[in-house]
Design brief:
The complex is a heterodimer of chains A (373) and B (422). Chain A is α/β, with parallel strands linked by helices. Chain A has two domains: 202 residues, Periplasmic binding protein-like II (D-Maltodextrin-Binding Protein, domain 2, 3-Layer(aba) Sandwich); 167 residues, D-Maltodextrin-Binding Protein, domain 2 (3-Layer(aba) Sandwich). In chain A, 40% of the residues lie in helices and 17% in strands. In chain A, strand 1, helix 3 and strand 2 form a beta-alpha-beta unit. In chain A, helix 1 packs antiparallel against helix 2, helix 4 packs parallel to helix 5 and helix 9 packs across helix 11. Chain A is globular. In chain A, 49% of the residues are buried. Chain B is mainly α. Chain B has three domains: 42 residues; 105 residues, no CATH class; 221 residues, MetI-like (MetI-like fold). Chain B has 19 helices and two strands. In chain B, strand 1 and strand 2 form a beta hairpin. In chain B, helix 18 packs antiparallel against helix 19. Chain B starts with 18 loop residues before the first helix and ends in a 9-residue tail after the last helix. The chains are: A alpha/beta (373), B mainly alpha (422). The interface between A and B is medium-sized, with 35 and 35 residues.
């Protein structure tokens, strides 16, 4: 095929682009489409993984696609259409469980597909317990521990900003617009906790119809003041623009808005929701061998620790944790900005991704109906 | 004279064929030639218009998934009498275990769960957790073990649902699209109140589109009148002002409205600066119905102005002068003489704007927040996010039917022949 193209390119010298591409087979580029969340998060991946990998492998070009927030549904649509154009997709664990169950993504074997720790510990033991097989599925390649928490405008509240989740739902003490993610996940849990439900019982309560009603009723109290966000970069932008006073956001986004962009934003860690984020490899992708090599490289001990230099998300490997040090440009110590720091993690909710994998469909539908009514 | 005529002679052409036959041939040839000329267009229309609509209609009732994946269980269920309230017999449970296990291996059973979950919340979790537990079931009695694996299988209603949705065609998408559903025994009931949404959205879409059309007419009529009556040089300049936004990207225009209307946007900043509004009571003009109406009126205005203008252009100014000279005052002359002649333009512009508005989704999605979204945003949601394509198709067909219905009414009341685009 290449020789055919070569011949054609000589004949059709006018078709310059084809000629150039085909006459240099040694540099034939493989484009890997990596889907991620955009903004500061994609930037941190770019610096920690993509740039060094492309520098070491001149034949590989990594293209970013920022549609991770619609990752699962777009992957389904691609699968249905029989044309998978993505090579690697960033997903939260609950979506990865569903994608794995539906056969949309490849199963992986941690010990052969992922790099061992520098001291020889196999990957299956080096990653934090249970993270490689959320919900019993074996497709997930964990990268970071992150949390969804709250940021607020420090200049909006004279008596100090909100300090607890109850304040988020208290429009009288803390007036102003809120921004929440346009998903039931996280919001329902917070609504119940703010409504006085024992945080350890949240998922039991949510499993009952009355519990769901209670959560929506609590959200009703602030519904008219909420601007809903769908992409990770939006809430910090809304805060920076002064469009909202309090917003839920991923902690790394808030970090970069506060420390890198010096916005007048404060963090409120009360009942931050922990979750893990990672990669899945779409089945039917066109460069599976190449992407597996990339994944092996990008999830090794040093690389995962490197990402924490650019954004305040914790690495998912035991061996990476001691390597986390200071921010690459600002030089500040990263540890106090990690969601897992004891000072920040006084009250945390462990996001129950298995529960959400089971209930996602019906609650999404109910949430959409609730929004439009 | 009478003596001259014999039997009427058949007129023939030069080569002897009767003229009538020859004329027929020539006409037929012309017809075929004309047909061949429009054939590419017909093929194009068929391929890009009729075929997709046909596929959409098919999608809205097609329901083969459950019976394809559960090909052992579904035929057996057909013999089961669901009205007795008894569970299906042992053979069905055995078939279920085989189907679910095979479907798990082929990665298709999850889709069945998703499909059935549209009808009854909770089904997807049953289908998600069952396969791993079914692995342990290698021999009978299947019934007991299956129910032990997940107690949902002991619920007759779940089986009724599988039997119903095992049929190759379903009405459930259409029912869901009008906030109805089939209950366990197959009669139509309302969805629970917290899930009712589509009827409300259809009504909202209709009245908001009507409002936008009305506003476009209100704003577009004077503009068109001005364009049609001013000297050509000035009116051409004004015409460019109408067309310029028309040529600008839709997204650019929509985002500009966000910049203008938002809380810290141009209008609010001005109102605060001149002290009309206090800083902490800025007006919410975006992410609600106001935002949708304002942005869409602006975007659709040219569709009203252009047909109105081209109709007004053809009304001779002498009519108005004649009315005036016959004693009508300006208002009466305008109302009785000028207005009636613009009706074809109003009709054309109104229909254009209304039909475009009813299916609009980009602008409402960006500026509509939650209260200013239209039915098309939900079609989009089901196409892209929830991937419930059957429901999206049903909503689309209902929307199409609604537009055709309104079109027919318009034809009856105003008459479609009365419409003129220029």
């Amino acid at each position: 095929m290449k020789s055919l193209l070569n011949t054609t390119s000589i004949v059709a010298a006018g078709v310059l682009a084809v000629g150039l591409a085909a006459s240099q087979p040694a540099l034939a580029e493989t484009d890997l489409v990596v889907v991620s969340w955009g903004g500061a998060y994609s930037a941190s991946q770019q610096k920690a993984y993509h740039d060094p990998y492309m520098a070491a492998n001149p034949g590989i070009k990594i293209l970013n696609d920022d549609s991770a927030s619609e990752g699962l549904s777009k992957l389904r649509a691609m699968d249905e259409a029989g044309n998978v154009t993505w090579d690697l997709v960033d997903m939260v664990a609950s979506d990865a469980i569903i994608a794995c169950d539906e056969g949309l993504v490849l199963e992986i074997d941690p010990d052969t597909d992922l790099a061992a720790a520098p001291d020889g510990t196999p990957a299956s033991e080096d990653f934090f317990e249970g993270m490689l097989s959320p919900g019993g599925s074996n497709c997930f390649i964990p990268q970071i521990v992150y949390s969804t928490t709250f940021g607020y405008r420090t200049d909006k509240f004279e008596g100090g900003g909100p300090t607890s989740i109850n304040d988020v739902f208290d429009l009288e003490k803390f007036p102003g617009k809120r921004s929440l993610e346009k998903k039931p996940i996280g919001n329902l849990e917070w609504a119940l906790i703010a409504d006085g439900v024992d945080p350890s019982q949240v998922y039991e309560v949510l499993s009952t119809p009355e519990g769901v009603d209670q959560a929506f009723a609590k959200l009703d109290t602030i519904k008219d003041s909420v601007v809903w966000w769908t992409k990770g970069a939006q809430p910090t932008q809304l805060l920076a623009d002064g469009e909202v006073s309090i917003a839920s956001a991923y902690n790394g986004r808030l970090f970069s808005a506060i420390e890198e962009e010096k916005q007048p934003i404060g963090m409120m860690w009360d009942w931050q929701v922990f979750d893990i984020d990672g990669w899945v490899i779409p089945a039917g992708g066109k460069n599976i061998d190449e992407v597996k090599k990339f994944v092996k490289y990008a999830t090794d001990t040093q690389r995962l620790a490197d990402q924490a230099k650019y954004i305040s998300y914790g690495p998912t490997r035991h061996s990476s944790a001691p390597l986390v040090s200071t921010h690459a440009d600002l030089g500040i110590e990263m540890a106090p900005h990690m969601p897992t720091d004891p000072e920040n993690a006084k009250t945390t909710l462990l996001f129950n991704y298995e529960w959400w994998a089971d209930h996602r469909a019906e609650l999404d539908e109910r949430f959409q109906a609730w929004l439009a009514n | 004279m009478a003596s001259v005529t014999a039997a009427p002679e058949v007129m023939v052409t030069a080569d002897g064929t009767p003229l009538k036959v020859s004329l027929h041939r020539a006409l037929r040839r012309n017809k075929i030639r004309a047909f061949l000329l429009v054939l590419p267009l017909l093929a194009f229309l068929g391929f890009t218009f009729l075929w997709p609509i046909g596929v959409m209609m098919f999608r809205s009732v097609e329901n083969s998934l459950v019976s394809t994946v559960m090909y052992r269980t579904v035929p057996l269920l057909a013999q089961w009498d669901e009205t007795t309230g008894d569970l299906p017999d042992e053979a069905v449970f055995e078939a279920l275990v085989q189907d679910v296990t095979e479907g798990f291996k082929n990665r298709t059973i999850g889709k069945v769960g998703t499909r059935l979950n549209y009808e009854e919340p909770g089904m997807s979790s049953i289908f998600r957790t069952s396969p791993k537990k079914f692995k342990k079931i290698t021999e009978g009695p299947y019934k007991e073990k299956v129910i032990e694996a997940h107690k949902g299988w002991g619920d007759v209603d779940k089986w009724r649902l599988i039997k119903r949705e095992g049929r190759p065609f379903t009405s459930s998408y259409y029912l869901a699209a009008i906030d109805r559903k089939l209950d366990n025994l197959g009669s139509i009931t309302s969805q629970p109140a917290e899930r009712q949404i589509y009827v409300k959205l259809f009504i909202r879409t209709l009245w908001m589109s009507a409002l936008i059309t009305g506003l476009c007419l209100l704003l577009g009529f004077p503009i068109s009148f001005l364009l049609a009556t001013l000297p050509t040089k000035t009116s051409n300049l004004l015409m460019i002002l109408v067309l310029l936004p028309f040529w600008t990207s839709l997204l650019v225009r929509t985002t500009s409205w966000i910049a203008i209307l938002q809380q810290h946007g141009v209008i609010n900043d001005i109102l605060v600066a001149i002290g009309l509004v206090s800083d902490d009571a800025r007006l919410g003009m975006i992410h609600n119905q106001i935002g949708t109406v304002v942005a869409m009126t602006h975007i659709l205005l040219p569709f009203m102005v252009l047909p109105l203008y081209s109709v007004m252009k053809t009304i001779p100014p002498s009519y108005m002068r004649a009315a005036r000279s016959l004693g009508a005052n300006p208002a009466l002359a305008f109302w009785r003489v000028y207005m009636p002649q613009t009706v074809p333009g109003i009709g054309a512009g109104g229909i254009l704007v209304f039909i475009i508005a009813i299916g609009y989704y980009i602008t409402p999605a960006l500026v509509g927040g939650t209260k200013g979204t239209l039915i098309s945003n939900f079609i989009d949601y089901h196409m892209r996010v929830s991937l419930n394509w059957g429901l999206a198709a049903a909503l689309g067909i209902i929307l199409l039917g609604l537009i055709l219905f309104l079109y027919i009414i318009y034809d009856r009341v105003v008459g479609i022949d009365n419409m003129k685009l220029g």
